[in-house]
Backbone:
């Protein structure tokens, strides 16, 4: 299961879009960055033959990619973007903050997402060591870790994830009649999980950071692959049967920046 982009819905009707689309295959696929009045970010419009709605996604460079139905209208596309300029600004600010958090150290007071809640790192002296608390997680670290708590805290969270994610996956598998061959916990950069044809499921340790309902959606998504190895309509029907709240969970994953871009 790959990380997905942020999405917003819009009407699929209207005249076929012309400018700012180019005529070459490269331009049709990637688009050119243009300016939309009232929107403080560059915008790339891209048509897609299979698209049924308008979709927004913030790109690495801070521009906004807008996917449109093949016959979407230019005027409707620009109106769609202008109506969501507040969302675009929030996403740009969130991505900037997340990028800084991903590259910077974790210090006392730094907020870290854990089980869907932003928890501050709390630190107190403990006999020459550091007593560190993050939500319900508590551990003792050497005083030398004070300049960057991230490496030992992430190592701890990965061990917690290995225990909790395996346990929850097997629990859901039993409840829905699936047999899992093996489970591994990894640090994928672009995937939340994957399932091999042999029944081996790999999960991203950062699922320990997301809300329980979103975590369960990813686990059920991978379990559904034990029945349907592709992303066919039958597979999606199975996911919807297993996880009635899958649309909300997908929306959360589209908007999070935990895996970067």
Residues:
């Amino acid at each position: 299961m790959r990380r997905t982009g942020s999405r917003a819905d819009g009407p699929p009707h209207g005249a076929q879009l012309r400018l700012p689309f180019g005529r070459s295959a490269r331009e049709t696929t990637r688009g050119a960055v243009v300016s939309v009045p009232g929107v403080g970010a560059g915008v790339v419009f891209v048509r897609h033959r299979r698209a049924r709605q308008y979709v927004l996604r913030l790109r690495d460079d801070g521009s906004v990619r807008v996917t449109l139905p093949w016959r979407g209208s230019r005027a409707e596309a620009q109106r769609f973007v202008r109506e969501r300029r507040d969302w675009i600004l929030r996403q740009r600010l969130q991505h900037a903050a997340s990028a800084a958090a991903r590259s910077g150290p974790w210090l006392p007071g730094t907020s870290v997402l854990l089980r869907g809640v932003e928890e501050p790192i709390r630190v107190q002296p403990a006999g020459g060591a550091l007593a560190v608390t993050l939500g319900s997680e508590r551990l003792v670290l050497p005083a030398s870790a004070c300049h960057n708590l991230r490496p030992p805290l992430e190592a701890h969270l990965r061990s917690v994830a290995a225990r909790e994610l395996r346990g929850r996956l097997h629990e859901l598998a039993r409840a829905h009649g699936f047999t899992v061959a093996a489970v591994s916990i990894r640090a994928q950069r672009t995937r939340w999980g994957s399932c091999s044809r042999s029944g081996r499921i790999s999960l991203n340790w950062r699922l320990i950071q997301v809300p329980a309902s979103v975590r369960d959606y990813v686990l059920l998504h991978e379990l559904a692959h034990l029945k349907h190895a592709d992303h066919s309509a039958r597979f999606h029907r199975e996911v919807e049967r297993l996880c009635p709240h899958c649309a909300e969970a997908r929306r959360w994953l589209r908007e999070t920046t935990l895996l970067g871009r």
